[in-house]
Amino acid sequence: xxxxxxxxxxxxxxxxxxxxxxxxxxxxxxxxxxxxxxxxxxxxxxxxxxxxxxxxxxxxxxxxxxxxxxxxxxxxxxxxxxxxxxxxxxxxxxxxxxxxxxxxxxxxxxxxxxxxxxxxxxxxxxxxxxxxxxxxxxxx
Length: 140
Hints:
Elements: E1 2-4, H1 6-13, H2 19-29, E2 32-35, H3 38-51, H4 57-71, E3 75-77, H5 81-93, H6 98-110, E4 119-121, H7 125-133, E5 137-139
Parallel strand pairs: 1-2, 1-4, 2-3, 4-5
């Protein structure tokens, strides 16, 4: 099982270039760990595509339904004071956006402060760099 950032979860519910590789990774893992705010970030990505005209309402609804189904099976790291405090430290350490610092903080909590023991799945280059600096093995 690995921690999955929102950037890697969106291709699980949408038809993207990375979808096949990520779906195969997920099947091999048998499950995933995600942050409490991940569904909000994923719906934001879907809504942005819909607003930009790249996605019909029916397809957006289908993607959100796939997200909800996927979310029922993942292990979720909740919005704790520990996640918030780690996120604040990460913002001072790495050039991250707030939501990315929360993702990385949740991964650190999931790894019980031993990032070398938990994989991190991410497609966001800035977050990939920060996760590697924190000690995670990042894929793909």
